[in-house]
């Protein structure tokens, strides 16, 4: 597995270099070439996937997820090598547009939380419909577009330093406790539209004056959930209303004194995937994408309870129906309004 991880790291560097060189050489646009999807049904697609033998995924998955997924998929389909290049959601959007403009197809699947991107790509005809049995079984209400599928939900937990806090947190109102004045971590709203949705949801569920009351605590702001978790671990902040279960659990595994709890209700971001219409390995992409949505694939994604599965497989951190899912419902005007309210409340 160490060799596999190193191969993915090398691939990320090589892919970036190849893209830069190709863009310089092409100097123009044009439709990127695509492979051919087998006709004759799902069995024909699976057979053709083995012939293709590989695929490339651009993903915002964590290293632990990637390790679990590549191992489990390798056992299920040893004739298909999957490479997963780790890119943030915004990096993926930029990279994929550059590749399409240059007429260069590298990735087969995109996996990220850029909700508007999936909608725009669907409208442009740039996403391929999934054909497999598991994809067809994905709950219709959880589809973002016809071609994209929900891969998992990532709830936002409360967290605190168990050496500095004796009374556990149970809900967002606990963030207002006097002991957290000057020692409270929050998400910086500049982190993205989903955080605007989070703060809008907080005001609707905790009261219209909740942000003003939070501001009286003189909180510290963090853009990345990993930074927020590290602040709690070091007691830079005693508690935080912003976090990522995978990031915090990784620190806990290293001995960090962090306690975590999902409030009820809990707000959750969502992560989607889709097959690209110009996928160089369309059959292998179909097989892998379908496997991701199968029970085995979802168990590999969920791991030890870092995320919630749309299929509610064993090990998920919560039932999907118990979460408030953010799926890109806010438009630009909504995000601007909520951001202004946030800045006013916190004097920023």
From TrEMBL:
Residues 1-27 form the signal peptide. Keywords: Signal. InterPro entries: TAT_signal. Transmembrane segments: none annotated. PANTHER family: PHOSPHOGLYCERATE TRANSPORT REGULATORY PROTEIN PGTC, THIAMINE-BINDING PERIPLASMIC PROTEIN-RELATED. This is Iron(III) transport system substrate-binding protein.
